[in-house]
Amino acid sequence: TATDQEKLVEFLKDWGELGDKLTYEGGERRGYTTVPAAAGTSGVLLGDVPSASDVLASGVGRYFSFEFGFDQAMLMFQPVGGMDQIPRALTRAIGEHRIRTGAVVSKITDKGSGVSVTYTQGGRTKVIDADYCVGALPPNILARIPHNLGSGVQSALEAITPSSAAKIGLEYRSRWWELDHHIYGGITETDQDVTHIWHPSYGFHGARGVMIGYYNYGGDADSYAQLTPKEREKRAVAAGVKIYGEKYRTELASSFSHHWRQTPHLEAAWHNTPGGPDDIRYKPLNEPTGRVYFAGDWLSYTDAWQHGAFTSARKAVTALHARVLSA
Question: Residue 4 to residues 16, 17, 141: CA-CA distances in angstroms?
């Protein structure tokens, strides 16, 4: 309707900072060459607005919608000391004595009245017997472990395939991105094979800092995986120099790179689940097979996130709890 059109135009005028002629001529959102300050310094807006063709050619708006995604909202809180603090807190709550590390599972057997899990630890083969088992290993790992859970479980595990991702942490002697460029957190999006460059959102104005020099996926991640750690560093730094200048190289102190497909017991950054976790082929994983349940971010709609792992775990243990109470 005409009223709808009028409301849409008013919205676009506000959202796009358009003038009465419905043209964009710049404004305070675009920034200043001289920032407004005390009386006598009203501020100087940036110069002439580039043409629409120039703006589109620059690709500047390529990732504007990134943070609108449900799983990419702007950061509000983060664990002090890093994300590892969450599993450490869970370990304290459960009791470290109940957790066996360095234990590589080699067989899962449902016995009808219980479950036996065979594993290797310290060069010795051991067996643990339990009333129930929740298989929370990645599906690509579970698919390689012998079991007696049937072909439906095996086919479902094999249908979920691993995805590649890689990162490199670059430690710098100074936080030059804050001092020189006034960048505090956030991501620099690129059109290079490093994909994203992440700035730390903690330790502002500290002595040193760590940037993520690449966070890439798929073929780009696999390409970096073929390099030695030093070669990865060299390639990532060369890409960053094109954006930030020579300090990206000269201030570098050390680096650490990681490729999830090369990580033992994971061998994936996240997973591709054709049809989504509720597809009929995954029914054997979403329901117990005998006394064996499955859980993991890969059985949720937020694969790759701790949130997905928590929601899937809650679903599995809730079902298990109800089963035990009704027995």
Answer: 18, 19, 55
pLDDT of residue 59: 81
Q: Whose CA is closest to 197, among 231, 226, 172?
A: 172
Query: Is position 68 within any domain?
Result: no
Average pLDDT over residues 254-266: 97
The secondary structure of residue 75, as a DSSP letter, is: P
User: Where does a domain end: 232, 262, 292?
Assistant: 262
Per-residue buried b or exposed e for 261-278, using 16+ beta carbons within 10 Å of the residue's own CB = beeeeeebbbbebeeebe
Question: Which H/E stretch holds residue 134?
Answer: strand 133-135
* 54-97 pLDDT per residue, tens: 988 888 877 778 888 888 887 778 899 888 999 999 999 999 99
**The domain spanning residue 237 has which CATH number?**
3.90.660.10
Q: Both 140 and 182 in a single domain?
A: no
Furthest CA-CA distance within the chain: 83
pLDDT digits (tens, 9 = 90+) for 219-257: 999 999 999 999 999 999 999 999 999 999 999 999 999
User: Which residues constitute the domain of residue 308?
Assistant: 101-146+279-326
- The whole-angstrom separation of Cα 233 and Cα 240 is 10
